[in-house]
């Protein structure tokens, strides 16, 4: 099913995934806060990316650089000159628009033919009364628009106590540049051989003029970027190394998104044509996702050639080369850059996981998250909260499992309701403690020491001894098969 953005926004707020930033003051434009479940989901996403692309690979290392970098970095990288959007301003209401957006906006018109009545007319269409086309501000309909002016998207600030031109600094608009300016430090300290990559996950800031669509495009966001350095003189499987590795990274990134749940039919590759290529790029391919707003960029994988290292060498006066032992010469490596956004990936995983189904005449909303992404792995639920032994056993189970995973205890509703709540936030398994588990001392009955595990996706159940729970969850949460667990530990009929 295709979920709407409104449904996701409302679920995210209601269940503690994402809130509007500073909401009690009316919100900060296009900034969002991750709530208790959102932060777990986001941390899981970043941890998996780091584990799969850094920790598990012999050819990768990571860094964590500062957000404020030397202003020369942005001169060398081209951001000061090129990281701009053409903007027009309304001379009357002072609103600012991206020049290329103006003709795609509905426009306000005061129609002479109808005694100056105000109309909102769809983008690109003339007024149906007087036939006029938009010439004035699309919003107020009264002001002339200025000629386009270039507007830099970097946030400016000042370093130190004096607010003067010499102390201007910028919040980084991408994490990538730190990998280039640290190239020599990393190369020497880690004694690396090409090809190798440097990864970084961290905050970036862009003063986007037309942000929106929830966390798809925001002014403060997180990126997960890799700069993968290759020797352009090398060949791999008969192809130039940079071209070979570019295709390898495209395939690896696609596989990663599929592995954690994005469906094939919602993913596609989009090749940038020549006119669209950034100033540094030899070839760029986007992985697009079918978001609730339509097909849009999820991440980009660019072949940045030797542009960045050469620019930083030129502006810093330092040599940023690699000694090719085989050819006995210094070369400037080429760079393949898989660049993704944490928030955008999180939105894609949320949208893909969202399902609605009918169960016994009622709507069931389920986030079918991959277990490794799910914010909460297990919810421990007492069947009767008035029975002390049950509550005590449930708390003890939560405490034991919490040593390894994010596990919650909830006794604030009847069991059916508690299951639905966990379904809606994507918890893969619930554990229910009941009378049979603990027995009934008043009647002289001893418990069986077993609990019910309920599987989110199939709603099937298994009856598992408490001491076996950790082992069972280790298996299930790392991709184990529910059917195997259900047949090994059958639930009572
Ligand atoms: N170093 C290259 C680079 O930054 P980009 O295509 O501008 O390339 C990479 O950004 C990724 O960062 C995008 O594919 C997207 O996932 C994320 N991203 C970029 N701008 C964003 C914004 N304003 N809000 C949320 N995510 C953004």
Write the layout of secondary structure elements.
Layout (H helix, E strand, L loop, with lengths): L4 H10 L3 E3 L11 E3 L1 H20 L4 E3 L8 H7 L1 H4 L1 E6 L6 E3 L8 E5 L5 E5 L27 E4 L3 E3 L9 E3 L5 H6 L1 H8 L5 E10 L14 E11 L4 E2 L2 E2 H19 L7 E5 L11 E9 L2 E12 L1 H10 L5 E3 L4 E3 L2 E8 H12 E6 L2 E6 L10 E5 L5 H14 L5 E3 L5 H10 L4 E5 L1 H4 E2 L4 E2 L3 E6 L5 E5 L3 H8 L5 H7 L5
Parallel strand pairs: 3-11, 23-24, 23-25
Antiparallel strand pairs: 1-2, 4-5, 4-8, 6-7, 9-10, 11-12, 12-20, 13-14, 15-16, 16-17, 17-20, 18-19, 21-22, 25-28, 26-27, 28-29
Helix pairs in contact: 2-9, 3-8
The protein binds glycyl-adenosine-5'-phosphate.
Glycyl-adenosine-5'-phosphate binds next to strand 12, strand 17, strand 20 and helix 9.
Question: Describe it for me?
Answer:
The chain has 493 residues and is of the alpha+beta class. Helices cover 28% and strands 29% of the residues. The protein is built from 14 helices and 29 strands. The strands form ten sheets. It has a seven-stranded mixed sheet with strand order 3-11-12-20-17-16-15. Strand 23 (378-382), helix 10 and strand 24 form a beta-alpha-beta unit. Helix 2 (36-55) crosses helix 9 (342-353) and helix 3 (71-77) crosses helix 8 (307-316). The longest helix is centred in the first third of the chain and has 20 residues, at 36-55. The mean pLDDT is 95.
């Amino acid at each position: 099913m295709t979920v709407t953005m409104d449904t996701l926004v409302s679920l995210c707020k209601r269940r503690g995934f994402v809130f509007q930033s500073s909401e009690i003051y009316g919100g900060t434009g296009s900034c969002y806060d991750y709530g208790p479940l959102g932060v777990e989901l986001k941390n899981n996403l970043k941890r998996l990316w780091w584990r799969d692309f850094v920790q598990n690979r012999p050819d990768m290392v990571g860094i964590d650089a500062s957000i404020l970098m030397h202003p020369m970095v942005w001169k060398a990288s081209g951001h000061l000159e090129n990281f701009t959007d053409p903007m027009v301003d309304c001379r009357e209401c002072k609103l600012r628009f991206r020049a290329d957006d103006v003709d795609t906006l509905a426009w306000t018109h005061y129609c002479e033919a109808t005694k100056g009545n105000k109309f909102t007319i769809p983008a690109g269409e003339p007024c149906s009364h007087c036939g006029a086309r938009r010439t004035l501000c699309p919003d107020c309909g009264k002001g002339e628009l200025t000629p386009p002016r270039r507007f830099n998207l970097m946030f400016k600030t000042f370093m130190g106590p004096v607010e003067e031109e010499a102390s201007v600094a910028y919040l980084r608009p991408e994490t990538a540049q730190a990998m280039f300016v640290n190239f020599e430090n990393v190369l020497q300290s880690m004694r690396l051989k090409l090809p190798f990559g440097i990864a970084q996950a961290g905050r970036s800031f862009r003063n986007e003029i037309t942000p929106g669509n929830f966390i798809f495009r925001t002014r403060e966001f997180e990126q997960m970027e890799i700069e993968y350095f290759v020797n352009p003189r090398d060949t791999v499987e008969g192809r130039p190394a940079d071209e070979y590795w570019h295709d390898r990274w495209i395939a690896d990134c696609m596989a990663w998104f599929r592995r954690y749940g994005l469906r094939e039919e919602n993913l596609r590759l989009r090749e940038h044509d020549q006119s669209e290529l950034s100033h540094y790029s030899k070839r760029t391919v986007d992985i697009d996702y079918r978001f609730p707003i339509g097909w849009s960029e999820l991440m980009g994988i660019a072949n940045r050639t030797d542009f960045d290292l050469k620019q930083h060498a030129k502006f810093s006066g330092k040599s940023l080369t690699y000694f090719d032992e085989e050819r006995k010469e210094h070369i400037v490596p080429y760079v393949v850059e898989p660049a993704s956004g944490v928030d955008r990936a999180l939105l894609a995983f949320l949208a893909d996981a969202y399902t609605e189904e009918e169960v016994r005449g009622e709507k069931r909303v389920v986030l079918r998250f991959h277990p490794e992404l799910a914010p909460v792995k297990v919810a421990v639920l007492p069947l009767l909260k008035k029975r002390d032994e049950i509550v005590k056993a449930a708390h003890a189970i939560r405490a034991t499992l919490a040593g390894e995973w994010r596990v919650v205890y909830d006794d604030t509703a009847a069991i059916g309701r508690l299951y639905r709540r966990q379904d809606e936030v994507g918890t893969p398994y619930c554990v229910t403690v009941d009378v049979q588990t603990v027995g009934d001392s008043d009647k002289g009955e001893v418990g069986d020491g077993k609990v019910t595990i309920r599987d989110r996706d199939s709603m099937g159940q298994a009856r598992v001894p408490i001491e076996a729970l950790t082992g069972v969850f280790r298996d299930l949460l790392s991709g184990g098969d529910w059917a195997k667990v259900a047949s090994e530990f059958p639930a009572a009929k």
